[in-house]
Specification:
heterodimer, A: 206 residues, Rna Polymerase Sigma Factor, Chain: A, Arc Repressor Mutant, subunit A, 2 domains, globular, B: 275 residues, alpha+beta, Immunoglobulin-like, eight-stranded antiparallel β-sheet, 5 helices
């Protein structure tokens, strides 16, 4: 019991994770399906938004979202409280899944005609307020949005396209009709600046 | 130096693309190799750029999946169908599985550290507890000795009462403290006496009460005593000055400098004549 409390305290001190999320992950590790359901409710909108911005189609996105949570369920043991926080672990896992999907060969040929790269990108500026939204994310969102406006637009542009659309740097170069080297330089400069601006809010655990 | 710098720049460039998952396949592999031989500083840069990329997810516009999806997912989870059927390669599967191995190893280490820390705390509390117990036992022992002494005193006093020939002198309060009273129960043969006083004010620090036997109209010291806060006390007086009922006239109590004086100097608190 003491060990448990101690571990929890140490974990919290190091990562500043929300107790709820950590507790949920622990219960998931113990095969508590209700905990996975709670985690799903907590993350579904964020992850679905992220996945759909990459894979575009709703059915496809729902499919990926299901795969993401099945993977969380199966790989919960590989989540290490000492090494990273719940949010980072889940977001990384989800993005891997989504990008995996669009870069798979079958998907590329299937989508080639249907994806229009000229459809509106993300709507960062629209501030859709949802009263159901958990407050865990909203403050951070404002900080990151603000940080994105503080770096040169040309740099934030390539970062946004890469992150929200899941395009490779070569695809971005084609899309923006600029040399690949320029995309690389802008990405590097932009990410380094973002890192500096967001630095104080980032723990090194990824 | 310049070479080193360009290496850093190259590392940064690939790293920024890598954390955004926007590198082409061959560059991705190149960076993963680079990462394996990376300096601590480069590792740290990779970690913080990865964190930065993760922060971007906060700004994603939320969207609501259908309710059906949740049912489908939970059915799959609860039926156990999903258990360990995950396969296929991830873009970062090489790095990830390596990280996972490291993670589980690290977890045990962290667990061991936490466990030993907990053990240390438990041991320390036990040591503290045992010290506490020891001091409690020692306190109890002292208390037992006190009680034994008290009991012995009381039984000695009672033995005075039990003697065949005892005289009792009743003393009354004097002007300075009219409410006080006391008794001297005196066994002239054994030269022992039992003094009881009541309603005497507690003695100041540098003072004592002194009992006097007035013998042939001269005061002879019969001992000093100090009252407790209740002002109700019994004292046993050993080696009472030799005096017979005939030669003793009275008993008196005065307040004197600590340790007593040869002749009374202070205020008289109690006084009682032989009958």
């Amino acid at each position: 019991m003491i060990i448990f409390i101690l571990l929890a305290t140490i974990g919290k001190m190091i990562h500043g994770d929300s107790d709820d999320e950590l507790a949920l992950m622990r219960r998931i590790k113990q095969r508590d399906a209700d905990a996975l359901e709670e985690l799903y409710d907590l993350y579904k909108r964020l992850l679905f938004g992220m996945v759909i911005s990459i894979v575009k189609k709703r059915e496809e996105a729902e499919d990926v979202l299901q795969e993401i949570f099945v993977k969380i369920w199966n790989k919960a043991d590989s989540f290490n409280e000492e090494r990273g926080n719940v949010y980072s672990w889940i977001v990384t896992l989800a993005r891997n899944k989504a990008i995996d999907r669009i870069r798979s060969k079958g998907y590329k040929t299937q989508q080639k005609q249907s994806v229009s790269i000229h459809e509106p990108l993300f709507s960062l500026e629209t501030d859709k307020h949802d009263p159901m939204e958990t407050t865990i994310f909203s403050d951070r969102a404002e900080l990151v949005k603000k940080a994105l406006t503080e770096i040169p637009e040309k740099q934030s542009e390539v970062i946004k396209i890469a992150y929200y659309r899941g395009l490779t740097q070569s695809e971005i170069a084609d899309y923006l009709d600029i040399p690949l080297g320029t995309v690389k330089t802008r990405t590097r400069q932009g990410m380094i600046k973002l890192k500096r601006i967001l630095g104080e809010f980032i723990t090194n655990d990824g | 130096m310049a070479n080193e710098k360009s290496h850093t720049k190259k590392f940064e460039e690939l790293c920024a693309g890598y954390v955004l998952h926007s590198l082409d396949e061959d560059e991705r592999k190149e960076f993963e190799q680079m990462l394996e031989g990376a300096t601590d500083e480069e590792q740290q840069l990779y970690q913080s750029l990865a964190s930065t990329a993760n922060q971007l997810a906060f700004t994603v516009e939320r969207d609501e999946p259908s309710d059906m999806l949740k049912e489908r997912l939970m059915d799959e989870i609860r039926s156990g169908e999903s258990d360990e059927k995950i396969s296929g390669t991830l873009p970062q599967s090489g790095v990830e599985s390596k990280e996972n191995d490291e993670k589980s190893g690290f977890s045990w280490q962290a667990f061991a550290i936490a466990a030993s820390f907990a053990l240390l705390i438990v041991s320390l509390s036990l040591v503290f507890y045992s010290f506490n117990l020891r001091s409690q036992v020692s306190n109890q022992k002292t208390r037992i000795v006190q009680l034994k002494n008290e009991l012995q005193q009381k039984s000695e006093m009672l033995s005075i009462l039990g003697s065949r020939d005892v005289d009792m002198v009743i003393m009354s309060g004097m002007e300075v403290n009219p409410n006080g009273y006391g008794k001297v129960i005196w066994d002239p043969k054994k030269q022992q006496a039992l003094l009881q006083v009541s309603n005497l004010p507690p003695v100041p620090k540098n003072k004592d009460y002194q009992l006097w036997l007035i013998k042939n109209n001269k005061p002879v010291s019969a001992g000093v005593f100090a009252t407790n806060s209740q002002g109700d006390n019994f004292f046993k007086i050993e080696k009472m000055a030799q005096a017979s009922k005939q030669s003793a006239n009275a008993f008196a109590v005065t307040l004197e400098p600590k340790g007593g004086v040869p002749q009374p100097t202070g205020d008289m608190y109690l006084m009682g004549n032989m009958k």
